[in-house]
Amino acid sequence: xxxxxPDADVLDATLRAALRTGGDFAEVFVxxxxxxxxxxxxxxxxxxxxxxxxxxxxxxxxxxSVGFAHxxxxxxxxxxxxxxxxxxxxxxxxxxxxxxKLSRQQAPAPNEVSVAPDAVAxxxxxxxxxxxxxxxxxxxxxxxxxxxxxxxxxxxxxVANSDGLLATDEQVKxxxxxxxxxxxxxxxxxxxxxxxRTVGFELFDTVDxxxxxxxxxxxxxxxxxxxxAPSGAVPVVxxxxxxxxxxxxxCGHGLEADLIAKEASVFAGRIGEQVANPMVTLIxxxxxxxxxxxxxxxxxxxxxxxxxxxxxxxxxxxxxDRLRADRADRPASSGNGRRESYQHLPMVRMxxxxxxxxxxxxxxxxxxxxxxxxxAHLGGGQVNTATGDFVFGMTEAYLIEDGRLTAPIRDGNLIxxxxxxLTLIDALGNDFAMGSPGTCGKDGQGVPVGDGTPTLRxxxxxxxxxxx
Amino acid sequence: xxxxxxxxEALASLGDRVVAQAAPGEQIEVVLVHSAETEVxxxxxxxxxFASATAHGVGIRVVIDQRQGFAHAGSHDEAVVAETLAxxxxxxxxxxxxxxxxxxxxxxxxxxxxxxxxxxxxAVDPETKxxxxxxxxxxxxxxxxxxxxxxxxxxxxxxxxGAVVTSTGIRSIGRDSSCYLSVYSLAADGDETQTxxxxxxxxxxxxxxxxxxxxxxxxxxxxxxxxxxxATRRTTVVFDxxxxxxxxxxxxxxxxxxxxxxxxxLFADRLGETVAAPCFTLTDDPTDAAAFxxxxxxxxxxxxxxxxxxxAGVLRQFLHNSYTGRRSGTASTGxxxxxxxxxxxxxxxxxxxxxxxxxxxxxVAGIDxxxxxxxxxxxxxxxxxxxxxxxxxAEGLRIRDGELAEPIREFTVASTLxxxxxxxxxxxxxxxxxxxxxxxxxxxxxxxxxxxx
Lengths: 468, 453
Known about the structure:
By secondary structure, chain A is α+β, with helices and mostly antiparallel strands. Chain A is built from 10 helices and 23 strands. The longest helix of chain B is centred in the first third of the chain and has 16 residues.
């Protein structure tokens, strides 16, 4: 794989070509990604798919403008041509800017990868799918359909820029998910469970896919008895792991420096202020072992960091990429410059975003809630950072009546306002867990992210159901 | 772009060379795409970014002994293509044999001829694109004194040529050009900020209406200033065209032959039954050149066709690709959808709800008490197309005594897909082309739960 990466001379020549007509900064991002996925659906192995994507994206910055071009041609000539296109797009129109001599920089890998996915026989991947399908169907005759997905990707990246930085990373990720459909008198219901880590096939040494399958199937089965969700504002308790999506939407996006710079965030200008209940500490951490949103370097070559965004309820900092850090006269980014592929410009993105543990016993939090909704599993969300309004979906939830979980309720969205919800958190458990692996979408680009929380309660959130 | 291959013949020839390698008993399908895109983003009177790129993609599907394998790569380099074919062949060995597995075969349906490719778009110079992005931002900023910022103002264009070639006798070439303007505005009043957006789509820059895009972005943001949370209640909602298009896209996904075969469609056993109100007729028509999703051929290279899905509320048919058609005992409806990096699924390309007679303001005039929904969020997280549960975040305006009244935000709109289709009260006459699978139109739906305070 490494053989396809351009050598230092070619990278140096490419950067020179990019700055031939001036400009303040140039960067070459090279990516070679091999991926495979296998889908078992409707009782059969439907397909095995292999993918390969390799190429380079070249960025030239001149004043406030950025020119960008990408190419799948990694020869010296191909890179030079893309560099010229990027330079023209940046419209610098001056004399050449010198580029610094490239020197290799090392960053610690968040974890070891012991079993490369492409070294594993495809029959072993298929066997996992079959086992999961059987386990899900064995949960009950009401399980009418099961789909299982195995996926892996081996992403080799290289970043070289006109500051002289040269850095590389090998990012290996493995994912497994199970979706089940149950059918009953009230129609069909669905359940899903997934696991994703920044590791190779050794993931399955510690994760039993039949457990995932049973969880997915039980989720679907339980909902056959579900009542329509309530409508209106009620107290909401979110189980361990699940609440990460809430913070990702309620304030994570609003702390991205590009949205701050454009005044498109309700958190602009609020550093140092008490923005949340003092029990809340929010961290974005790209170095978190094997979690889904980890890497050694970001897609601008900067080592991943652990960044405390909110400490004891006080807003400490935003997340930064290179462009926004430069414009704010900061010495460096916070390691949050990411892109979906070489075909995209990097921007500020989260990694693994989580709330640290509180003091409460999770059972006490539920017992202290006379009535409300308990959300055990979430299904994604969305935010308008300028207004702070956000939604997230519940895919396994229960009514809380007299401090106890009672009837399951049907799927729906909850809606709240980020800054408001941060102050409405009034209980935080001591049972921290990471949630399901996610793909975060922003401006058309998807990147892998993780999130986590202990059990928590929000005094009031609007549940978007149909029941009175 | 495409100066070296203006007709796409070079792409198809590359496909010919690959399928010629099919062994006895082996079927090979090659999908090739070559595209060129420009994206110009303006911010604060300057160009924030100018991205320009060409991309190549190849996807190869192999069917042998009733098993399917697939591989894809982002290059047309002959060595990469050969590696991709080898990977697809290897993958096929691990599929479960399925008697219905197989590629599409020519079905005699004539390919509609449409003018979807405008060479003049390729000739637009960068300065013109930059001028349009800057002008879009300026027009939005100047549209109202309460506009305090423009989050992004983009000009985007794409030219693409694609080919599908199979060992079963399919050889189709399609070309397409498209461009759009999109702008996201910020309006402020005191501490409060609201957002709006506007866009305009076309096949060449002459089609674009910059003034309208800017005006929409201004109006949408400004009219939400002062919004509060509504009370929770059951009421009539009016979906604006942008919201309706998203709703129709979800309805369309439940009508795929794949969802039906795999027992994931809530309409599976309901052909011929009344599933929607009599005023509701839904058609997928990629042969309509005016549709954003128009195309001459589908993802398997078969001619596209007009498919009426619901007629006056009665469920007429499902959509199929060649696999689901074969397995259902019918035939492909020309509805294979895919990118080069995946096997063909089944889906809608150009949905349209047949417009009614009344203008949007006439529809609002007939509602004493209701809600106009101008934006929705979280459709991916709060709508379950298998169970039909529908719940989405929303913002919009109250309707009081037949008139648009105060703005509202931070509420949800909930029902089920099944009920909403039956509860459609009226379809507006304002068919709107959007950069989406479905066209937009105003839609009035009764008895929906709005949750706020």
